[in-house]
């Protein structure tokens, strides 16, 4: 190997080194799959040639609005074709895509727009009132608003803002995409659920997203020409990067605005959907569908599920209906899923209860990652793989974020010891498979969405009758978990459960609002710290 010391002339050039980016998938598909269906949404149908043209016009139109490379362009959109187009068109003009959770309240939207510095925002008419209120309370300059009408669903534009189709019409179909000079350039800005206060801005790079798309094809064993149903919100880890990967395979993205049992069954029966990703609550929706909402189909639908471990009973109920489910796990900070419960043939003959318990495991690292294991969070040493000892899930690999925007302290802490600290507590089985045991922070996961107990407590404490409160997760058959508030009232003060729930609902997104309020003295330590573990036990019995 001595000759390798002399590498004169063996440099990176435009011929042998191209920065990795998911944008390449659509540029290739525009030629290789030009006439294949790329997008399907009710009466809206576009081939890959048309998809590429629309994304190109979007990129050009944004440049004409003054969007420059490195600027942030936000979206407040459901899973409609324009949202898929934004995933390519926004970065194709060199901008950074900031997909905002459509379920957020105006105060948090205003914070995200201010913190990320969005120059423009694409917004569905349904969410314009929240956006308008957010803009009113912003500290910084307001973004340009582009209204994205959804005529297919009867959600028409109001004519008060520039319309999305007009923006596309203004674009140059010959616009030359601005591809990254460096694959470390920022591609997307996604905000966490703010489980310890204000949400943090997770910055993702082109390289990580590209490798996520490649690794997912391997782990999901995706075939050529899949038909993929967008149930995972495009604002959630960029739809787990699935929409970015579909052009690689000539697949069709079937858009789904409203996630109902009927919409899912119709898409499978009428559109021939073969793959979908979904939180366990969606699996329950499928299992518990009314007879009139069900449709028959004659193929197996492959499902990735994440957000919380699916109950074994749910897996046992859904698979006979024609669904093959794989549990995956990840975070916003890891672009979406980075572990998979890779199935071993030897498990096929186990009793049903054991098989479905294994299927609910968090799993092992996917192929684009370097190492995912459970460690002692303080000493950074591996825990015993005995299925009993607990440790924090630690993650290392290329599909880990660049860091938190404008928050170097939180970034350094998250990457301490050369791994990303997930904050999730797990046991590890002798075969290396992880299984989440608990949450390091008091996170409530309701319907796949993370809820900060601190945020909910902060709102309830603003009620004049409330002395102290603590919010914990209460198990729920439909949502997985819902917020349950334990409240101590001030001496002589009165308040009812319905009053406090209404008070919170006026100040929080609906999914964050407590569904149950219990009035009692809160258990505390000698130093006055509320003992939430006791409250969780009470909530489980309610």
The CATH first-level class of the domain at 443-541 comes to Alpha Beta
Rg computed from alpha carbons, rounded to a whole number of angstroms: 24 Å
Q: Strand content of the residues, in percent?
A: 25-35%
CATH architecture of the domain at 443-541: 2-Layer Sandwich
Classify the fold: give the CATH topology of the domain at 443-541. GMP Synthetase, Chain A, domain 3
Indicate the low-confidence ranges by residue numbers.
none
For the terminal residues, how far apart are their CA atoms? 69 Å
Count helical runs: 17
Largest sheet: 9 strands, mixed
Content-based structural category: alpha/beta
| Percent of residues in helices | 25-40%
- Write down how many β-strands occur, each being a DSSP E stretch of 2 or more residues: 26
Mean pLDDT: 93
- As laid out across the biggest beta sheet, the strand order is 2-1-11-10-12-13-14-15-16
Assigned CATH superfamily of the domain at 443-541? ANL, C-terminal domain
Principal-axes geometry comes out as globular
């Amino acid at each position: 190997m001595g000759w390798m010391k002399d590498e004169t002339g063996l440099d990176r050039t435009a011929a042998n080194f191209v920065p990795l980016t998911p944008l390449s998938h659509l540029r290739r598909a525009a030629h290789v799959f030009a006439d294949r269906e790329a997008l399907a949404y009710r009466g809206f149908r576009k081939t890959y040639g048309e998809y590429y043209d629309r994304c190109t016009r979007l990129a050009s139109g944004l440049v004409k609005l003054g969007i420059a490379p490195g600027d942030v362009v936000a979206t407040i959109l459901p899973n409609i074709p324009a949202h898929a187009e934004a995933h390519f068109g926004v970065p194709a003009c060199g901008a950074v895509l900031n997909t905002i959770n459509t379920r957020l309240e105006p105060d948090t939207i205003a914070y995200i727009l201010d913190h990320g510095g969005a120059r423009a925002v694409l917004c569905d008419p349904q969410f314009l009132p929240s956006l308008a209120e957010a803009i009113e309370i912003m500290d910084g300059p307001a973004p340009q608003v582009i209204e994205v009408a959804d005529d297919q669903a009867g959600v028409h534009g109001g004519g008060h803002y520039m319309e999305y189709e007009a923006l596309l019409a203004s674009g140059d179909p010959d616009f030359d995409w601005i591809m990254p000079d460096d694959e470390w350039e920022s591609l997307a800005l996604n905000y966490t659920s703010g489980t310890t206060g204000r949400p943090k801005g997770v910055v993702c790079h082109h390289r990580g997203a590209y490798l996520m798309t490649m690794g997912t094809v391997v782990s999901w064993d995706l075939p050529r020409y899949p038909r993929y149903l967008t149930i995972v919100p495009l604002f959630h880890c960029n739809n787990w990067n699935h929409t970015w990967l579909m052009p690689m395979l000539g697949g069709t993205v079937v858009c789904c605005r409203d996630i109902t049992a009927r919409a899912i069954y119709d898409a499978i029966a009428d559109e021939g959907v073969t793959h979908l990703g979904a939180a366990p609550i969606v699996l329950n929706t499928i299992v518990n569908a009314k007879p009139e909402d069900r449709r028959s189909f004659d193929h197996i639908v492959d499902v990735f599920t994440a957000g919380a471990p699916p109950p074994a009973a749910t897996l046992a109920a859904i698979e006979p209906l024609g669904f093959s489910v794989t549990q995956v796990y990840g975070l916003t900070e890891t672009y979406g899923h980075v572990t998979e419960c890779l199935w071993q043939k030897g498990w096929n003959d186990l009793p049903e209860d054991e098989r479905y318990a294994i299927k609910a495991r968090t799993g092992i690292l996917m192929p684009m990652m370097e190492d995912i294991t459970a460690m002692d969070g303080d000493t950074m040493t591996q825990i015993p793989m005995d299925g009993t000892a607990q440790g924090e899930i630690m993650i290392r690999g290329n599909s880990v974020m660049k860091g938190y925007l404008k928050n170097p302290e939180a970034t350094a802490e998250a990457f301490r010891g050369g791994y990303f600290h997930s904050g999730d507590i797990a046991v590890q089985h002798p075969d290396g498979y992880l299984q989440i045991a608990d949450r390091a922070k008091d996170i409530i996961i309701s319907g796949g969405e993370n809820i900060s107990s601190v945020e909910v407590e902060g709102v309830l404490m603003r009620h004049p009758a409330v002395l102290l409160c603590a919010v914990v997760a209460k198990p729920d058959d439909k949502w997985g978990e819902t917020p349950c508030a334990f409240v101590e009232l001030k001496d002589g003060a009165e308040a009812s459960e319905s009053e406090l729930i209404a008070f919170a609902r006026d100040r929080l997104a609906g999914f964050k609002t407590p569904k149950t309020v219990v009035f009692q003295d809160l258990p505390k330590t000698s130093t006055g710290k509320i003992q939430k573990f006791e409250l969780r036990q009470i909530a489980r019995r309610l």
